[in-house]
TrEMBL record:
Presence of the UniProt keyword Cell division in the record: no
Keyword Transmembrane: no
Localization per Swiss-Prot or TrEMBL: Cytoplasm, Cytoskeleton, Microtubule organizing center, Centrosome; Cytoplasm, Cytoskeleton, Spindle pole
Top-level lineage group: Bacteria
Keywords attached to this entry: ATP-binding, Cytoplasm, Cytoskeleton, Kinase, Nucleotide-binding, Transferase
Protein family: Belongs to the protein kinase superfamily. NEK Ser/Thr protein kinase family. NIMA subfamily.
Lineage: Bacteria, Pseudomonadati, Myxococcota, Myxococcia, Myxococcales
Residue ranges with Polar residues bias: 164-175
Pfam families: PK_Tyr_Ser-Thr
Gene3D superfamilies named in the record: Phosphorylase Kinase, domain 1, Transferase(Phosphotransferase) domain 1
Protein name: Protein kinase domain-containing protein
Region span, Disordered: 164-190
Domain Protein kinase: 9-374
Length: 374
C-alpha cells in the first residue's frame, strides 16, 4: 500500500509502472495541483541503484524544456520514500492511443480527460481526485528536498555506485556475431483482412505519423543535449487530449562523450524487446540506438506485433542481434510502403545503415507526406 502522502503531495491511485518505480496520481497539498508522482519505497525495499537513477532522471529532466518532453516539478525523500513529481499528462500511452478498437472521432475523444493506466475504466482526473478537503490541504510534514537527498538516502543503503549486469541467464559475448547458428523459426502469417483493415485505417495512420513526428522532435532535442534515452517503448510515450505526444521515463538516460557515444561497459539495462543490438550487447550506444528502438515501436504499430516476439530471453536476445525481422509488407500487405521502408531502415543491425539522426528521420517522414505540412 502506498502512503497517503509523501512530502508535499497527497497520493491516490496507480497510473503507471516504470522501470524504476511506480507512478501515482497525486495532488499538491497547498495548491491542489494534480501531478504524477513516481515513488520508490518504503526504505527496506528500495534498490540503491534505482534511487540513484531516480535522482538522475530528475536532474536530467530539469535541464530539458520541450513541448514533447514531460516536465519535472520536484524531488526528494520523505519517510523512507524517494519521489519525483512531474506534470500529469492526461491521456493515453501510445499503444492505447493507436488501439484498433477506437476510431475517429471517438479515438480523438478517448484521450481527453483519461489518466494513464485508467483509460479502460473511463475514469478522469477529477473523479479520481475528488474534491479537496481540509485534511488533504493541511501542510505536509518535513521532507528532504532535491536529488542529493535521494543520493544520500541511496548511500545509506550501502550498495556500490555501479550498475548491475542484467544479462543473467543469457549467452555471454561482447563483440562480433553470436557464436551459434540462427535458430530455425516459422515466419509469421500475414494479418487477416479484418486485422489489416483496422491497422491501416487512414485516420489511425495519420495519428501514427503525427505521433512519430513529435517523438522525433523530442529525440532531436534530447540528443542535442548529449543524452541517449535508452528506454524508448510505447508505454514511455504519452499522448494527451490535444494529440500532443510526450516522451517520459528518463531513468536509464545515458550521457554521451565528445564523440557522441555512451560506453555501457557490458552493463545492460532497459526493455529487451525494444533494445538495439549494441545496447543488448552492453556496448557503445549513441543516438542511433534510440532510433532503432523507435523502429521497433513503429514496426509494432504498423504490423500489430513486434519484429521479434520470442518469449524466452535467450531466443529474443539472439533475434535482436542476428535475425532480420520479417518484412513489414509480408506481415501487413496493405501498410503504407513509405512507413514500411522507414521502419525497416531503423531496424538495421548496423547503426551506420539506419537514419543518422532524429532530424534525418523527421525529414524522411515529412518528405513521405509533403501535403500534410505547410
Amino acid at each position: 500500500m502506498p502512503p497517503r502522502s509523501v512530502g508535499p503531495y497527497q497520493i491516490f491511485s496507480v497510473i503507471g509502472r516504470g522501470g524504476i518505480g511506480t507512478v501515482y496520481l497525486g495532488r499538491k497539498h497547498d495548491t491542489g495541483q494534480a501531478v504524477a508522482v513516481k515513488l520508490l519505497g518504503p526504505s527496506p525495499a528500495v534498490d540503491a541503484l534505482a534511487a540513484r537513477r531516480l535522482a538522475r532522471e530528475y536532474e536530467v529532466l530539469l535541464t530539458l524544456d520541450h513541448p514533447n518532453v514531460v516536465h519535472v516539478l520536484d524531488a526528494g525523500v520523505a519517510e523512507g520514500y524517494s519521489f519525483v513529481a512531474m506534470e500529469l499528462v492526461e491521456g493515453l500511452d501510445l499503444r492505447s492511443y493507436l488501439s484498433t478498437s477506437i476510431d475517429e472521432p471517438a479515438g480523438e475523444k478517448a484521450a481527453a480527460g483519461a489518466t494513464p493506466g485508467c483509460a479502460e475504466e473511463g475514469f478522469d482526473v477529477r473523479s479520481l481526485l475528488g474534491e479537496p478537503d481540509t485534511e488533504s490541504l493541511e501542510p505536509p510534514g518535513g521532507y528532504e528536498r532535491g536529488p542529493d537527498a535521494i543520493r544520500a538516502f541511496a548511500a545509506v543503503i550501502g550498495e556500490p555506485e555501479t550498475e548491475t549486469v542484467t544479462r543473467s541467464g543469457l549467452p555471454s559475448f561482447s563483440t562480433g556475431d553470436p557464436p551459434w547458428p540462427e535458430a530455425p523459426r516459422t515466419e509469421p502469417r500475414p494479418l487477416d483482412a479484418r486485422g489489416a483493415a483496422a491497422l491501416n485505417r487512414p485516420t489511425r495512420v495519420r495519428r501514427l505519423r503525427e505521433a512519430m513526428e513529435q517523438v522525433c522532435a523530442a529525440l532531436s532535442y534530447v540528443h542535442a543535449h548529449g543524452l541517449v534515452h535508452r528506454d524508448l517503448k510505447p508505454g514511455n510515450i504519452m499522448v494527451d487530449d490535444q494529440r500532443r505526444a510526450r516522451l517520459m521515463d528518463f531513468g536509464l538516460v545515458a550521457l554521451v562523450d565528445e564523440r557522441g557515444s555512451a560506453h555501457l561497459g557490458g552493463k545492460v539495462a532497459g526493455t529487451y524487446r525494444y533494445m538495439s543490438p549494441e545496447q543488448a550487447r552492453g556496448g557503445v550506444v549513441d543516438a542511433r540506438s534510440d532510433l532503432y528502438s523507435l523502429g521497433v515501436i513503429l514496426y509494432e504499430l504498423i504490423c500489430g506485433r513486434p519484429p521479434f516476439s520470442a518469449q524466452r530471453p535467450g531466443e529474443l536476445w539472439h533475434d535482436i542481434l542476428a535475425r532480420r525481422p520479417t518484412p513489414v509488407l509480408a506481415v501487413n500487405p496493405g501498410a503504407d510502403p513509405r512507413l514500411a521502408a522507414i521502419a525497416e531502415r531503423l531496424l538495421e543491425k548496423d547503426p551506420a545503415l539506419r537514419f543518422p539522426s532524429a532530424d534525418a528521420l523527421l525529414a524522411a517522414l515529412r518528405e513521405a507526406w509533403p501535403d500534410t505540412h505547410h
